[in-house]
Give the backbone structure.
Amino acid sequence: MQSNSTAEAGKPLLEVRGIQKIYKVDAGEVEAVRNLTFDLRPGELVCLVGPSGSGKTTLLKIIAGLMAPTSGEVLLEGTRITEPPKDMAVVFQEYGRSLFPWMTVRANVELPLKTAGTPKAERTRLVDDALAAVGLDHVPTSYPWQLSGGMQQRVAIARAVAYQPKVLLMDEPFAAVDAQTRADLEDLVRHIWEKLGVTILFVTHDIDESVYLGERVVVLSSSPTVVQEDIVIDLPEDRDQLTTRSLPRFVELRNHVYEQIQLAKRNAGKQGAAAADGAGVPRSAVPGADTGGESVART
Ligand SMILES: Nc1ncnc2c1ncn2[C@@H]1O[C@H](COP(=O)(O)OP(=O)(O)OP(=O)(O)O)[C@@H](O)[C@H]1O
């Protein structure tokens, strides 16, 4: 795995530059995203949070090359993205719709490699490794509908991992599973990230999840969206559901993110002047914050 310091020293792998998205609707136009600028360095795990409707899915579609921005650009290793890049994989929330029910687990994981023309022997090795990495090497011949929701999402993650992307985009991947499974899958993502050194952009509604997983948390404003804050998560790299979430620093950071989301909601419709000036938002390190009270942690 690349350590934080290595990632910090490298050039950006993914650059999001001044992204604006205006949707045309019957009544005219909707400016969903106004001006988004941030980057991911090689090996970073960055979480993206924002109020509902702040444009997280819009942004991911643009980064994945599935939709063109109205203005601005996304660069992967310096090359502008104009179509789905081959070095990128996406894991969506709706695993049920992203897996083919008539294909076995193995066939689902193997499919993108087949499409890419990867030779058979290499495919077999990559699929075996990916299934082992997500703890599913005992069910290769099962069908997705025979598995629990959490296991199906593991299949989707294995498929993305086997493809060996440079960038893995995850769009609220655990929103549809129960809390215990969610915790297990969060640890799986950290484990895969540490083992493979893949660069991950993880979109979530869950503030605690963003702080637990991320090396940085990028907070979006309400729509029309800008980056409201880019926060360094200075928790120890070895994370554990019990120990990490009990740390006073974890509580400070999640409270800070929570306050930022509340601020974004209050500012809805009256963009904060400082955030909306179009400049890149500097990364902020949260000083010791007050840890009072709030227990709700979803956007
Ligand atoms: N195809 C579309 N046509 C018109 N407006 C759209 C379209 N897709 C999204 N929007 C609008 O753009 C804004 C951002 O939507 P988007 O789904 O990207 O936000 P989000 O942060 O992913 O939302 P959520 O957190 O609820 O999933 C919203 O105001 C939404 O209504």
